[in-house]
Amino acid sequence: MQRFQYYIDGEFLDGEARYPSVDPATGLIWAEMPEARESDVDRAVNAAETALYDGPWAKTTATQRGKLLYKLADLVAANAQKLAELETRDTGKIIRETSAQIAYVADYYRYYAGLADKIEGSYLPIDKPDMDVWLRREPIGVVAMMVPWNSQLFLSAVKIGPALAAGCTMVVKASEDGPAPLLEFARLVHEAGFPAGVVNIITGFGPSCGAALGRHLKVAHVAFTGGPETARHVVRNSAENLASTSLELGGKSPFIVFADADLESAANAQVAGIFAATGQSCVAGSRLIVERSVKDAFLSILKRKAEAIRIGSPLEMATEVGPLATKRQQDHVAALVEKSVQSGARLVTGGQRPDGEGYYFPPTILDCDAVASPSLAEEFFGPVLSVVSFDTEAEALKLANDTRYGLASGVFTQNLTRAHRLMKGIRAGVVWVNTYRAVSPIAPFGGFGLSGQGREGGLAAALDYTRTKTIWLRTSDDPIPDPFVMR
Ligand code: NAD
What we know:
2 domains; 21% strand; Aldehyde Dehydrogenase, Chain A, domain 1; alpha/beta; binds nicotinamide-adenine-dinucleotide; Aldehyde Dehydrogenase, Chain A, domain 2; 14 helices; globular
């Protein structure tokens, strides 16, 4: 059995308490994780604050920060396969995806390495003589980061990268489910040579460890990725320390297919959008909105593709759909499918949890035309697609926006002017046209409404980890005049 440690103030520690981690492909315990409690959280935050103001990090130049980030990026690239195997083992996400995604995570660190010494302050053309005024951009402070189980290295890189570029220190809380890759990543942070306390990586349970971290009085910003219900706790807890928050939450993203689209290509994108990562993707295109005249044709292509998907061990390179990460998740998906079928949704394919070991659930399509199916409103975070059809463009847009979420969306059409109208009309943080599930460190990412606030990726994300300080400097040697008049 593998034992993992957490990383506080430059040291790898076992923690007072430990808990078992289950391999979702077998349902068997394969590793033991350290559980951070409130006292560990306190130590980690104190270490981060000391590193921020008193340690060598405080004197590290922006260019040196960039060099450390480049080194970290190289180490992630060199260890991508090992990290991928750990993520696959601990979360069930297929090795085909974890290997590609973690290799790309190195590019996120490279992007922010390059940005570190380009975060500039400014000089203000102030409206007073004999006065120089400028803005310094300083690190926002100690940052608390919480991530969910899916893609922990990726979801943490979009926080750790810009925060380090900006000069912050941080405590990263891995998800209690599948924390192995992030705990292992801590060894690369150490090897890269970041001073003790700059990056602390712990894991523990949400209501204890996560809540203690989010409300800690020395935390200035909370960068959270997870579900909207947990985000409400995070925001309530931030009333304690008045930390700013950025929230990357779930989605119920529309995937619109017009009759003039290349149906084969759209079907491949839809398969990627809902069945990749076994549907455990915040951007899952989980609501197919298809023009009625091609609905049957499109569904038959999708059904064929869904039924040809290779389901199996996530550690096999040929596997396309692996297990869900936890039994809890498998139960949630099965129950929501059952509730949707009872409400009148028609099963096109899948729907039944298979016998045998592991937390598997097959690619499932629910035809929800003319049915008020809960599957159209609730996030599965699993491989389940709900389908509705439309006759007019206006109807398609109305259906697309019929949600409180607003993370991602897809539009498939050959009609350029229509594509432009829809990209303006859809209320979501990302619109993909004739493609789906493309991401890059250069492109900001984030949601509207219940999908969250704040953006990750791009230059602005690094600025979000800074705060400005306004400096006033009087350049006259004359005595200050009338002290009772504001100048
Ligand atoms: P979750 O909200 O249950 O947990 C996320 C993290 O928050 C975990 O580390 C958890 O321990 C922690 N947490 C729980 N309670 C907490 C509290 N009171 N205070 C502070 N932290 C707490 O999410 P999950 O179920 O693990 O993940 C699935 C959700 O994440 C889905 O809704 C999915 O859409 C969303 N997600 C969003 C994105 C995005 O970028 N927008 C990406 C991936 C996943």
